[in-house]
Amino acid sequence: MSMFRRQAGRYVAVFAVDEVRVLRKVASEVVGLLTDGFDHTDPVVGRLFPAVYPEDAPDTAEFRRYTEGDLKTAKIDQAGAILAALPDDAGGEVRLDAEAAEAWLRALNDARLAMGVRLEIKDGTDLGEELDDAVAEDPGSSRVFQLSVYAYLGYLQESLLNALID
Q1: Is residue 91 within 8 Å of residue 15, measured between CB atoms?
Q2: What is the pTM of this model?
Q3: Distance between CA atoms of 150 and 49, rounded to whole angstroms?
Q4: What pLDDT sits at residue 1?
Q5: CA separation for the pair 103, 109 (Å, rounded)
Q6: By the 8 A CB rule, do 144 and 138 touch?
Q7: Exposure string (b/e) for 64-103, b if CB count within 10 Å is 16 or more?
Q8: Domain ranges of the chain
Q9: Nearest residue to 26 via CA among 105, 107, 92
Q10: Which contacts of 108-112 are long-range, i.e. CB under 8 A and separated by 24 or more positions?
Q11: What pLDDT, in 10s, does the model give residues 101-149?
C-alpha cells in the first residue's frame, strides 16, 4: 500500500497499478457527480454542498447562487489534480508540490464524504467491524470492495497529511 513521504520539497508516493486504477475511478466519479449528475436532492451533493442556513431555504439558495459555481469548480479542479498526477494505467511514482498535495487532500476528503454517504457510514461507525460484517455476509460483494476503497482513501489521506506536517 502506498504511503506519502516528503522528499526534496515534494510529497512522493509510489502506486501499484491497482491503486492507480482505483484513484482514477474515484476521482473521475467525483468529477462526474459534479458535472453530469449534479442534483441538490442527491444526498452526496447535499453532503459536499451543505446548506449554510439549514432552517432558511431562501437564504441558503441566495448563498449558493453566489458561491456554488466557484466551489464546484474548485472541487472539480482538485479531483483533476489527482487525475493529472497519476501515472497512466501503470503503477509508478507521484510527486506533488505543496499546492498539488493540498488539492489531493481536499479531493480525497470529498471522495470519502461521497462514499461515506453512499455506504451509510455515520459518525462513530467502526469501519473495521463494518468491513468484517460485510466480509462475513459475502466476501465477494461490492460492499466489501467499496468499504476497502473507503478505508484505503482514509489511509492515503492520513499518509499525505502526515507528510505535509512532518
Answers
A1: yes
A2: 0.89
A3: 20
A4: 66
A5: 10
A6: yes
A7: eeeeeeeebeebbebbbbbeebbeeeeeeebebeeebbbb
A8: 24-84+98-165
A9: 107
A10: 108/82, 108/153, 108/156, 108/157, 108/160, 109/157, 110/30, 110/48, 110/75, 110/78, 110/79, 111/26, 111/27, 111/29, 111/30, 111/79, 111/153, 112/150, 112/153, 112/154, 112/157
A11: 999 999 999 999 999 999 999 888 888 888 778 888 888 889 899 999 9
Report residue 88 as a C-alpha cell: 497512466
Unique residue bearing C-alpha cell 453566489: 66
Angle value at C-alpha 61, between 55 and 64, nearest 5 degrees: 115
Three-state secondary structure string covering the chain: CCCCEEECCEEEEEECHHHHHHHHHHHHHHHHHHHCCCCCCCHHHHHHCCCCCCCCHHHHHHHHHHHHHHHHHHHHHHHHHHHHHCCCCCCEEEEECHHHHHHHHHHHHHHHHHHHHHCCCCCCCCHHHHHHHHHHHCCCCHHHHHHHHHHHHHHHHHHHHHHHHC
Burial class (CB in 10 A: 0-12, 13-18, 19+), 115: buried
Instruction: Name the grid cell of 44.
Output: 452526496
User: Contact 105/75 with Cβ under 8 angstroms?
Assistant: no
User: Which residue in the block uniquely carries the three cell numbers 441566495?
Assistant: 62
